[in-house]
Design brief:
The structure is a homodimer.
Chain A (H helix, E strand, L loop, with lengths): L18 E6 L3 H12 L1 H8 L3 E7 L15 E2 L2 H6 L5 E4 L5 H12 L3 E4 L2 H18 L3 E2 L11 H7 L5 E7 L2 H13 L3 H10 L8 H4 L2 H15 L9 E2 L7 H9 L2 E13 L5 E13 L11 E8 L3 E8 L3 H21 L21 E10 L5 H11 L4 E8 L4 E7 L2 E2 H13 L3 E10 L2
Amino acid sequence: MTETAQAAFKPGKGAGSTVGVALLGMGTVGAEVLRLLGERSDEFTARIGGPLEVRGIAVGDLSKPRPGVDRDLLTDDALGLVKRDDIDLVIEVIGGIDYPRQVVLAALRAGKSVVTANKALIAAHADDLAAAADESGVDLFFEAAVAAAIPVVGPLRRSLAGDKVNQVMGIVNGTTNFILDAMYHRGASYEEMLAEATELGYAEADPSADVDGYDAASKAAILASLAFHTRVSGENVHTEGIRDISVEDIDAAKAANSTIKLLAICERLVDDEGKESVSARVYPALVPTSHPLASVSESYNAVFVEAESAGRLMFYGNGAGGGPTASAVLGDVVAVARNIVHGGRGPGESTYAELPIADFGDVSTRYHVDMQVDDRTGVLAEVASVFAEQGVSLKTVRQEELRDGARLVVITHSAREADLENTVDKLKQLDAVMAINSVIRMEG
Amino acid sequence: MTETAQAAFKPGKGAGSTVGVALLGMGTVGAEVLRLLGERSDEFTARIGGPLEVRGIAVGDLSKPRPGVDRDLLTDDALGLVKRDDIDLVIEVIGGIDYPRQVVLAALRAGKSVVTANKALIAAHADDLAAAADESGVDLFFEAAVAAAIPVVGPLRRSLAGDKVNQVMGIVNGTTNFILDAMYHRGASYEEMLAEATELGYAEADPSADVDGYDAASKAAILASLAFHTRVSGENVHTEGIRDISVEDIDAAKAANSTIKLLAICERLVDDEGKESVSARVYPALVPTSHPLASVSESYNAVFVEAESAGRLMFYGNGAGGGPTASAVLGDVVAVARNIVHGGRGPGESTYAELPIADFGDVSTRYHVDMQVDDRTGVLAEVASVFAEQGVSLKTVRQEELRDGARLVVITHSAREADLENTVDKLKQLDAVMAINSVIRMEG
């Protein structure tokens, strides 16, 4: 459904009206949202034009002690809560996909606006959620789903609505950035830093969503959808994590005046005939130390946007945690509540461009290929000719002697993924190539 | 008028309706806006839900050749144009204050929404313009007025609407940043670099608005108003420019591992009794080279925001020029046009907090004081006791021998402006102090 179809929406309740709020989830973010709704209630009333009133809180476990929370507000029936007549606005901070999807759909269909911080939900089900919001003429806002308090959803949806975005590239997962940053600065291994991240509470007991890139992929899908007015879901994002990044890779990055970052990249591709397509991908990549993304340290996030008229923009800040996430949620709450009081509706999903998703093999980038080869005359020529046959041209070659053979590090010019993949396959078949130690992309 | 009073606004024209646009001004930005309105018209229609149609262009000189522009659209009667029934949305990119104020007021009173890039206008007359917009229930948007395409107005108005902003600090004038950056990196004088900036088109023939800080002061007023929900006008901003920054000051900055930047600083002050006030100020200041603002080079802009929940955020990009300014204008145009088609209204001026403007003397910061003193025993004690008497404590003292006397460079801990000013007055009265070479604040 394109924006053109979003015609009707509900009139406002009128200035001074109270907005009834349902809060779904009382984890770190939910508790902080509830606390701030109380602490800042006067400010919110002034900014909205009417007071917010939390009228129900859905939790999984009613018996758990929750000091300071009015027990009468608690319920374990989220579905029943969101349909209640006295609820205008639903804040979803449960997490997960299937259950929140069911509840959020029910809320939207019942004509309630929804604010969510749930990136996995939006990345997987933007289509039917947006359709339900359109049908009811209500808002579905999710600034907190990408990079917490750093405003990127708003700028892409609104500030850059008059521009043509060509690329969005960012560090959008704090856990992996913490691990890679520590590996770079302390020379430690992936396993050691993952253990430390878990201890510090940066990583979950099951770290897969972070370290395998799925969390970043959800965010990439959301960013690509907004940037290119095309529906991109998590499944469309080529995703590689950081589990295989070794101490040797970090050392190789240093030798190339670079660091390694897990990047989410959303790109508008244009082929020789001018046909446009969209690529969204997540992988660890070498980033030159002179690039601003290289200096994004610890668990910080940063997003670069390159647009035709605006040029290059960067947004930087704390991309996770209860406070920053609550800030983004509450910004959306104020905007949505204003619409409930005064009438009107924020920009909905915009997918009019309907660009095709590019085949990952057609994406072009540069590569850092680290291999172990026989140390004899003619090997370099053999290796170089394999690259040349696949149309991959070389930018730099560095060879060093090892106890057993030689190490050959090649940096390519921009080449197609498919061509690079063929090159690597062919290199593996060469007798002279003993091992391909790593193939890492280079960006920025 | 607070947001609570913004109740009524006009219903939408309906999906598919054409939005009639009047463009005021055909300078660099106006011409680029017009070009992009043509080039991106399909995208705009899809994003808005109805087409934009430029129905009139007001210019100062009708006889000037304007290739590619339909002459039938041109008029020199801006006031007549904005009142026409077929105009829904007015884009003001004339510049100046009095004349655009008259035209924008007329447009708002006639029920037309306005998008402007005019920082001086907004900083001087936000009060009656916002009141007129409120009365008519229309939008008055001005993202382009601060830092061009870098979204800062939107994030402060919307994304951070649920947070409590404590400080906004930024480099918001590209011309002065170009000059200071070149002085720092090339060791050149202010006069040389101003001449070069003028030649490159960065500086106007009369550079006063830039180099005396007035342009930055307008932006500081706008940022402070948005951040603190308090009306702050350009007159409330303590403003100092960069004309007096010498090669010696730059050298002193380097010796202190710092660079010099013209900063716009908006701060929420809290006194001992918890009473809040707002400070907005513009002055050149030492910024440590390790601070992200120090590496903002050439004519780039960057804005730091520190909010209670979000923590520190940074926005970075190209803060001037036809393309970036047009990008910001057109982002606003899409948002305003959506409201015209579908109904609804963006957040208006929000001044409910009505915090008092702090006296500049009550602002605290650190200082770098560079003076020439007699080179004899007891002078340092004399000087130090003057600081101590005014309650200004010293962080570092560096003394070096000169041919004639000694040079004494003092860096203070945070101190009140008024106390520092008294200190400097007293120092000047000391026989031992031959000259105060410079007093520069330190931030970041």
